[in-house]
Amino acid sequence: MPILKNAKHEAFCQEYVSNKQNATQAYKHSGYKTKNDGTAKANACRLLTNDNIQNRIKELQKETETKELITREQLINDINNDIETARLNGQLSVCMKGHELRGKMIAAFTEKIEQKNSGDFKVVIFDGEQDIE
């Protein structure tokens, strides 16, 4: 789908995709004048029901996903090359850091987060058949 003929509609679509789907902010940043956020939200919701706008947003999202995928693949390839270079040069700590970064990129690890809760709470574990308290 080509760029929308209505410049404000096109700007809205671009802003919507770049603002992580915040329609109110996209509406306000795309050249529309509004007195308050409530009006901006209502008008943004109305724009999102327009078929041309929906199609353009989907197209822009696909383009963004493709760019992110290419960038992620390039980054992993670069990390792999750096790991190999570090290994050949005997830089084991650099090699291990590369493995760590690559693992984070592919979500192979989970970070440990310590959370403190105040008050009473109940832990319930579901094993698929019954609740165990």
Describe the protein:
With 133 residues, the chain is mainly alpha-helical. It is built from 5 helices and 2 strands. The protein has helices at residues 7-18, 23-29, 37-48, 51-88, 92-105, and strands at residues 125-126, 131-132. The mean pLDDT is 83.
Helix-strand blueprint:
Layout: H1 7-18, H2 23-29, H3 37-48, H4 51-88, H5 92-105, E1 125-126, E2 131-132
Antiparallel strand pairs: 1-2
Keywords:
mainly alpha, 62% helix, two-stranded antiparallel sheet, 133 residues
Describe the structure in brief:
The protein is mostly helical and 133 residues long. The protein contains five helices and two strands, in the order αααααββ. It has one domain.
Determine Rg (CA atoms, Å): 24 Å
What proportion of the residues is helical, as a percent range?
Answer: 55-70%
Mean pLDDT equals: 83
Order of helices and strands: HHHHHEE
How are strands sequenced across the largest beta sheet?
1-2
List the total number of helices.
5
| Termini gap | 56 Å
Assess the beta-strand content as a share of residues.
under 5%
Determine the structural class based on helices, strands and strand pairing: mainly alpha
SS elements, strand count: 2
Q: How many domains, as an integer?
A: 1
Largest sheet properties = 2 strands, antiparallel
Shape: flat
Unreliable stretches = none
